[in-house]
Every structure is written in structure tokens, then in C-alpha cells.
Amino acid sequence: MTSIGLRPATPADDEYLFQLHKAALGDYVAQIWGWDEEVQRAFHERLFDPGRWQIITVDGADAGMIDVDHGPAGPYLGRIEIHPDHQGRGIGSRLIRELVEQARGHGQDLTLDVLAVNHRAQALYRRLGLREVARHGENGIKVRMTTAPLR
């Protein structure tokens, strides 16, 4: 049985998290904007928030990151990135299922945005009970998904 845990990110995780983003989402970023190392590093530095971000651990080793905003309207999954060496092992599924269950326990829905070119992630989110509700961003590059029922 694989042990999945979370630990708070620290400033010392900065470079690990940049390299994780590059490994996990770099191909998708490149499809939309092209991968410019300087631009992506500056983007990372603006967003890096060790007070909010958590490192996903698998059997004690760093395997990814997650950022969840627990707002009054319900949890918003701002980001989940699993290193390619750990993908396909159910880690992201388990964490997202837990978020869905927590949200439902509070009478809320989980919401997230995913890049439109990331079909693999969209398929995962659909399997976990989320559905597309909108496209936004320049040329609809982001897909908003939620567990909220059709109204």
C-alpha cells in the first residue's frame, strides 16, 4: 500500500516546484505559449506561495504539489501537479476524491480550471465526477470544471 501524504511547502522547495511544473505541465504550456524558461521562471516566482502550497509525498518522497483555496463558495483546486515518475498510480485521483468528499460533506462543490490541451487531466476529472461548465481565457484555453449538478 502506497502512503500518500501532504507537507507544507517551504521556501527551500522553490526550485523543486519549478522543475516539477516543467516536468508535469511543460509540454502543455509549450503547446499554448511555447516554453520560455525566463518567462516561466518569472511566472513561477510570482505565484510561488509556500504558505498555501503543499508538497505531495509518496512513501515519504516528494512526488508533486497541490494548491487548494478553501473559499466560502467551496474548494477551488488551483493546481495539482504530479511528477511524471509518479503519474498513473492513483495519487491525484485519491487526493481529488478526498477533496470532492470534503466539499460534499459541507454541502459544497469542488471547482477547478484545466488547460484545454490537457485532455488526460480532463478525462481524469470527468471520471471523478466533474463536468465542464465554461471555457475562458484567451481563445478558451482554460476549461472550468465542477462537481456541481446541472441546474
Describe the protein's architecture and organization.
- The protein has one domain (4-146): 3-Layer(aba) Sandwich (Aminopeptidase).
- The protein is globular and about 45 Å long.
- The chain has 151 residues and is an alpha+beta fold.
- The chain has a seven-stranded mixed beta sheet with strand order 1-2-3-4-5-7-6.
- It has helices at 14-32, 37-47, 91-105, 119-127; strands spanning 4-8, 54-58, 61-71, 74-82, 111-115, 131-136, 142-146.
- It is 36% helix and 30% strand.
Give me some keywords for this one.
151 residues, alpha+beta, Aminopeptidase, seven-stranded mixed sheet, 36% helix, transferase, GNAT family N-acetyltransferase
Topology at a glance:
Layout: E1 4-8, H1 14-32, H2 37-47, E2 54-58, E3 61-71, E4 74-82, H3 91-105, E5 111-115, H4 119-127, E6 131-136, E7 142-146
Parallel strand pairs: 4-5
Antiparallel strand pairs: 1-2, 2-3, 3-4, 5-7, 6-7
CATH class: Alpha Beta
CATH fold-level assignment: Aminopeptidase
In angstroms, what separates the terminal alpha carbons? 40 Å
What is the CATH superfamily label?
Answer: Gcn5-related N-acetyltransferase (GNAT)
> What letter string, H or E per element, gives the SSE order?
EHHEEEHEHEE
- Tally of alpha and pi helices: 4
The biggest sheet, with number of strands, parallel, antiparallel or mixed sense and barrel status, is: 7 strands, mixed
Total number of strands: 7
Q: Which blocks of ≥5 consecutive residues have pLDDT under 50? A: none
Helix coverage percent: 25-40%
What is the global morphology?
globular
Question: What is the name of the CATH architecture?
Answer: 3-Layer(aba) Sandwich
Placed side by side, the strands forming the largest sheet appear as 1-2-3-4-5-7-6
What class, by secondary structure content? alpha+beta
Oligomer: single chain
Computed CA radius of gyration, to the nearest angstrom:
15 Å
Instruction: Please state roughly what percent of the residues sit in beta strands, choosing from under 5%, 5-15%, 15-25%, 25-35%, 35-45% or over 45%.
Output: 25-35%
Write down the domain tally: 1
**Mean of residue pLDDT?**
95
